[in-house]
Amino acid sequence: MNPNIPSIDQLQEIALPAPVSYAPQTWGWWVLLGVVLMAVLLVGARRYWQWRRDRYRREALVRLAQLQSSAGQLGALRELPELLKRVALSMPTAIPQGTVGALGGEDWQAFLVRHSAQPLPADFSQQLALLAYAPDATVQALPADQREQLFNTCKHWVEHHHVAA
Hints:
The chain is mainly alpha-helical. The protein has a domain of about 110 residues. The protein contains eight helices and no strands.
């Protein structure tokens, strides 16, 4: 056997360095960790609060999708103005809810425009009043593209209306 070639018997275990703690060694890191945790908690709480606050909006969008799938039926068209009024009543605003329920005509149009993210048709409240109060034959005679436009406008308003926080 060649003496220059090491054998397995000559191997020795390497000494490992002392373990190092992952905990911060100075108080500044603890403060930073506390600030970051507080920020995460605040952002999470705010998101949860907004999610709960917008429950009425999610429920209205589900109902609106159901109505839109049966847009040819008279009941679906008749329920559309009622749904928008219920959404307006459910909005967490500074306006007393009794006054929102009593709005009609130009005041209702002004309310819808004031809380809309984009411009609404000038006769939107009149179209909703037509759906609510016109004879059945008049409502059923509405063209399909006008019905679709009404549903899309209502959906956009429900999705994007402004809420006073």
